[in-house]
Amino acid sequence: MTIIRLIFLSIVRRGGKALPILLGFILCWTTFFSLVTLSDSATEAASSIAARSGQPLFITPKREQVSFSFAGVTIAPDIAVKETYLPADIVEKMQVLGAVLPKLVTTGQVAGKKVLLTGARLDDEMKYKATWTLRGALPQPGDFLAGSKAAEILGLKPGKSLALKLPSGSILPGTVSATLQETGGPEDQLLFIDLRRLQEVLGKEDVLTFIEVPPGQTETNNVQTVQELLGPTVTVSKAADAQSSRLELAGSLRRFTFLVGLMVMTISSLLLFVTTANSVAERKSEMGIYHVLGFSQRSVKRIILGEGMVLAGIGALVGALLGFGLAFFLLPWVGSEDLSLSFPVSSVLFGVTAAMLLALVSGLWPASRASKLDPVEAFRQM
Amino acid sequence: MSVLVKTDQISKGYGLGENKVTALQEINLSVPERSFLALVGPSGSGKTTLLTLLGGLNRPDRGTLWIDDIDVYGLSGEKMADFRREYIGFVFQQFHLMPYLTALENVMLPLAVKKMAVQEQRRRAIALLERVGLAGKEHRLPHQLSGGEQERVAIARAIVNKPPLILADEPTGALDSQMGEQIMELFQELHRDGLTIIMVTHNLDYLRYVSQAAYLKDGRLQKVEEISP
Ligand SMILES: Nc1ncnc2c1ncn2[C@@H]1O[C@H](COP(=O)(O)OP(=O)(O)OP(=O)(O)O)[C@@H](O)[C@H]1O
Ligand SMILES: [Mg+2]
Questions:
Q1: Min distance B229 CA to chain A CA atoms (Å)
Q2: Backbone phi, then psi, for B220, in 5-degree steps?
Q3: Any idea which ligand is nearest the CA of B216?
Q4: Hey, are the CB atoms on B109 and A13 less than 8 Å from each other?
Q5: Measured between alpha carbons, how far is A116 from B84 in angstroms, rounded to an integer?
Q6: Contacts of A312 (CB under 8 A, 6+ apart)
Q7: Which residues line ligand 1 (CB under 6 A)?
Q8: CA separation, residue B9 to residues B38, B49, B66, B226 (Å)
Q9: Partner of A104 for a Cys bridge, out of A119, A227, B47, B200, CB 3.0 to 4.6 A?
Q10: Is the dihedral of CA B159, B162, B163, B165 positive or negative?
Q11: Does B52 touch chain A (CB under 8 A)?
Q12: Which pLDDT score, from 0 to 100, does residue A235 have?
């Protein structure tokens, strides 16, 4: 016989007595761990998407008018009414920091339908837009590239020729060399052409509408760094896009999980305190036997605390496994299917340790009270 | 023969002020090694009180107790527990077994706080259960044993630590006379093997098993007589 074996026998053989508290623990920790698993997965998914597609910066001219938004970023008040441009030399300034994707935007008409025509360095765009997949041949200067939606609406196919009417009334002819597969981003709506060519056609060789800085170009794509470099005449902003709202959601799920964790800990220590205090009263005669057999107060305390700690540990462990299982079922309900679950080993280890420490702390007072029972008192109750 | 247990002027009362009950008054008792002493007296005469005091389960209001030349009441709480474990085996009328431990586990229980290999614990406990006539019933829980069998388990548990002194409070009180005789025979054997036994009993028939009888009345020790076999 050892103290540890004694603890296990008292839990196992008196199963019925230990069951309610064990169930309480399991319930608490199942809730907690399902949330931990879900928020871990959500965070991981959000940050991996963010890492894959990144968050570009946008550099636009400063202006006072009411703005209109493009890709979640303010670009121009109304391009048709009053056009504001960036000086093209900003591109050189920005090149100190890394690659940039300068763009010039204008409106146009194809067969009577309005479209936004964007002049861009298409080779560079292809290089930095991981989500871009071409259908057709790589565009040469003079060729058009159509976003999926634009192609659908305008009836464009790779190889088809096209006459685009510019705001000035002149016609810009060319061939659609390729279309883009749908990305879910702003490019779906756009028609692209080589930047230099558009600048020449419009007679705006020295200006740009905005500059996109692809992710990973400046050290942290830090808005402030770029703003300081370029001065107050331009606006530097980050896209408030789907990725960042995903990250935000994951963040609030984390905070909620943290709160639930605190609640779980409070509830389980209360549970433990009450049951330890009660069971000590119920088991007075056993305490008497321990005294009579010459167990020291320290040994008796160890037995009582040990029982609580073992129950708490088992509760946390089973709760972790059930919680993980529950998270698996809840997954489609809270997020998209591409969330993948990973078993949070470190959280489980932390939880089991925390549960056992809590059991130790909340059992201290009842246990020491039990161990101090007057031996004769205890033994007369028998 | 040397003296194992010696008390000097032990007095004990319960309660406070007007409600104070004097349970024992100035008990001077000396028990030689290897004796089998019966504590006899009417109900309420203080037998159980004296037994708990002799076992260090309780402290007197006044007086001193030496066991094997140790001043028992001079020991601190932890030391007193160690002392009980090493020197004394208790047996009670109510058998006081742990209900969720088997006979074998109950006998091994006192060894849980000793540094003894589990194999050695088992070996010792099985031998003792065989000795008290419970071979083959080692793995029964207390409620699967008769009263007499439970009492035997309690006796085996009391001697598993090889204490020199056994204190028994009416160990036959809950048993029918046939089982009572069997338990008395077991104690007699333990006595012959060299244990010192102090036993409370109501049954004067059982005095034929003992070597001495001490008579208590109203908390006072009336007389101690030798009983020749
Ligand atoms: N915990 C207690 N509180 C108050 N009085 C007590 C307590 N324990 C015993 N007494 C009193 O002390 C006296 C001696 O009691 P004790 O139990 O020692 O008697 P006993 O000889 O063992 O009696 P019995 O043969 O009935 O077991 C009795 O008057 C009893 O009422
Ligand atoms: Mg009594």
A1: 32
A2: -115, 150
A3: 1
A4: no
A5: 96
A6: A25, A268, A272, A355, A356, A358, A359
A7: A 380; B 14-15, 21, 23, 41, 43-49
A8: 20, 14, 12, 22
A9: A119
A10: positive
A11: yes
A12: 82
Identify all chain A residues contacting B67, using CB atoms and an 8 Å cutoff: none
What does the alpha-carbon distance between residue A188 and residue A6 come to, in Å, rounded to a whole number?
A: 70
Q: Do the chains contact at A289 and B96, CB–CB below 8 Å?
A: yes
Q: Establish if B18 touches chain A: CB-CB under 8 angstroms.
A: no
Residue B73 touches chain A, beta carbons under 8 Å: no
Which is nearest to B148 in space by CA: B184, B113, B119? Answer: B184
Whether A9 and chain B come into contact, CB under 8 Å, resolves to: yes
Burial degree of B47 (CB within 10 A; 0-12, 13-18, 19+): buried
d(CA A210, CA A172): 22
Report the predicted TM-score, pTM, of the whole model to 2 decimal places: 0.70
Query: For residue range B7-60, what is the model confidence (pLDDT) as tens digits?
Result: 999 999 998 888 888 999 999 999 999 999 999 999 999 999 999 999 998 899
Angle at B141 between CA B140 and CA B145, to 5 degrees: 75
Q: What is the DSSP letter of B208?
A: G
Identity at A227, one-letter amino acid code: Q
Which residues are CB-neighbours of B103 under 8 A, at least 6 positions away? B97, B129, B134, B137, B138, B139, B140, B141, B142, B145, B149, B153
C-alpha torsion A168→A171→A172→A176, nearest 10: 130
**One-letter amino acid identity for A40?**
D
Distance CA B66, CA B69 (A): 5
DSSP secondary structure of A154-201: HT--TT-EEEEE-TTS-EEEEEEEEEEPP-SSGGGG-EEEEHHHHHHH
Q: Distance of CA A369 to CAs A293, A304, A365, Å?
A: 19, 11, 6
3-state secondary structure A136-149: ECCCCCCCEEECHH
Hey, what are A381's tokens?
């109750």
Element (H, E) at A322: helix A297-334
Structure tokens given for A106: 């204008």
Query: In 3D, which of A108, A131, A135, A132 has the Cα closest to residue A119?
Result: A108
DSSP string, A334-359: HS-TT------HHHHHHHHHHHHHHH
Yes or no, beta carbons of A1 and B78 under 8 Å apart: no
Please name which of A289, A309, A312, A293 lies closest in space to residue A367, comparing C-alpha atoms.
Answer: A309
Predicted confidence (pLDDT) per residue in A121-164, tens digit: 998 888 888 778 889 888 888 899 999 999 998 989 999 988 89
pLDDT digits (tens, 9 = 90+) for B79-116: 998 999 999 999 987 768 999 999 999 999 999 988 89
Q: % helix / strand / coil in chain B, to the nearest 5?
A: 40, 30, 35
Instruction: Give the whole-angstrom CA distance, residue A240 versus residue B118.
Output: 67
